[in-house]
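My current task is to audit a protein record that another person submitted. What it holds is a sequence and that sequence's fold in token form. Thanks in advance; the entry in question is below.
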Amino acid sequence: MSTASEQPQEFKVIGTRPVRHDGVEKVIGRAKYGADYSMPEMLWAKVLRSPHAHARIKSINTDKALKHPGVRAVVTYKDFPPIPEVGYRYGGVVPYNPRHLAENLIANDKVLYHGHGVAVVAATSPHIAEEALDLIEVEYEVLPAVLDVMDAMKPDAPLLHNDIKDESGKPSNVARHIHYDHGDLDKGFKEADVIVEREFHTATVHQGYIEPHNALAYFEPDGKAVVYCSTQGPFDVRAMCSDLTGIPVSDIKVVPAEIGGGFGAKLLVYYEPLALLMSRITAHPVKMVMTRAEVQKATGPTPGAYLKCRMGAKKDGRITAAEVWMAYEAGAYPGSVVYIGCMTAISAYDIENYLIDGYDVVLNRPRTGAYRAPGATQSAFAVESVIDELAQKLGIDPIDIRIKNSARTGTRTLAGPPQPRIGFVEVLETLKNSEHYKSKLSGKLRGRGLAVGAWHTGGMQSSALLNIHVDGTASLVTGAVDIGGSRAACAMVAAEVLGIPVTSVRPAVTDTDSIGYTDPTAGSRTGATSTLAAMRAAEDAVRELKERAARIWELTPADIDWIDGKAVSKNNGKAPLTLKEIASKALRTGGPICGRANIVGPGGGPNYSAVLVDVEIDPDTSKVQVLRCTIAQDVGRAIHPSYVESQMQGGTSQGIGWALNEEYIYDKEGHLRNVGFLDYRMPTCLDLPMIETIMVEVPNPSHPLGVRGVGEVPIVPPPAAVANAVSRALGIRITELPMSPARLFELRKKQGL
């Protein structure tokens, strides 16, 4: 790890590497995840899933299942309350329509993908529930399935929905068209000395979290519903459950368990509303836990995409025009993240003339969802590959061409407003000066590749409560689910403001009844917005501490400073009062001391990273081995550097898996063939080198501490960087992901290599 920073390190806690507060209980197995919860008289529920990718449900007979000993209820879509058409809402960064969301859980009149839910059984044990599933009789009329996004866009393609119409008003599988343009595209291409045009394809990829989706739901004696689950956004789960069950939001409490991975995939609901419905019908607590096969078949992987990219540049490397066309898989229901792919495609660059079109396309695959910088990785693969080829044709260093065209502070964004202070150029220059970039790479079938990525982090809403205890310690409560260390980061910020050791601050994540509304842990917003909420709550507590000190000294708060955890009198020479001394007198000075904050965050700022990889291709098997990998990233300010480095390394690892092996494999009937981790190939420690990290600290001007979001952008460049490295090693431009040994072997064979 190395760090390049333009800001002084004036903090005592921020920037250090304390042991995480929740580390011990996770290491020893005491932490409770969603599937660890149980209750007396609890029932288990299981879902019957479709064996077909596209079929009309002609009839469902549940009589035999209901008579099976131990079965307490069987429900189908008709058991949902009527759901009005209310348009789109947002769960984190994922748009959803409540009616479509309900149909995605349990099919209405048609099943739209292999593994689509058809019915739910609740029984006294999971084994009895599984036995009862086999007793449900479903008559299907099998329909033609469409599995490729380009096939789905054809006028004669089988239609999934009757209510989706294209821009001309005709029934279509194209649910949405996004368009951006600026300048004069024809003029830009006429000015170009070199033009590169390519078509690209990326496969459907799963997030690969270890913990399956789960839910435990029950009703209190007063009728209030309670849901325990693994989620990134408990308040969004509450809203979605209300939408789908008709239970008022105020009557639902969602308790987020510890989360065994999410990466964006645990923003939507899959089991929570079903568990609630079953609990209401049976008057018992109901628990549901997915199998790994169900996770693969019926949750929200990231969209596969088909892209076309054309770019032109002058001899000096200046890009004069860019045209990007992309079609993203929405899956069975509209709502892919193609709009983010459009927004981020060329946002790392200052290009005067551009045209960007994106299409959200439904097809017979599971409804797609968010995956770490959702939508950005696919479009970056196309754009960064074309820029790399431009650099090759022009004989320009791949970093230099990016520096020449880089977005800078003040550059116009696609949405119009200028860029705030960003560190993209600093990232590129730091990587260029790295030992890795300066090192030599030689050998047969070896190549070095570079790519960059961009992400735009939102702010959204966060709440925090900070309680000062009589022993001088503090507890910090937030509503943001901790996936990447946000508890520790918030505790560190609070400790910095209070002037006490971070070990004296105990952070906790609580349920939806116990904290103010908090948006989900998504889009890298949490590190920025939740730390700001913690900071404001701690400042509120300091204000209260100064008031208490003023009462003790018979002064005004204006006469008191707060320095290093002590109240200091400005003028009268009194001995400072420590936080503990003030807290011990809370009863006599006004009662409990606490601080609170409820904010709309300014956002984590634009994020940029660059990844450099060296690869070697096995001449016999065509397996790609990553020899070395370095990521440089503008992190704003690293609250806990170890956590920042792990986010950078984790995202890069996932991006390498995306590049080399990971994909959904369907047969011609639309059956998913690789439903477990044995066949869905994610990288292991044997596939990866130690990923080197370079943190560039250019402060985010919208955050008082300079914090930027860090978790999303590391996954954006790796697929393109690996593809560029393989392209240079083979002398063939790689345009399809993943670059699996079989696919690369066939490509080499076709090219005679």
Summary: Residues 207 and 697 are 28 Å apart (CA to CA). The chain has a mean pLDDT of 96.
